[in-house]
Amino acid sequence: MAVAAAIAAPAEAQVSRVAEGIRNVLTPALSGANTYKGYVTADYTQGFGTYRTNFASLTTSQGYKFTNWFYMGAGLGIDLLWSTADDTWGNDWQGSLPGWEKNNYTTAAVMIPVFSDFRFITGTQTSPSFFFNVRVGASFLCSDSYVKIHDGYLTQREYFFLQPSIGVRIPINTTNPRQAIDIGMHYRLMTSEYWSTWQYTAAINGLGLNVSFEW
Question: Are strands 152-154 and 158-171 parallel, antiparallel or unpaired?
Answer without folding.
Answer: unpaired
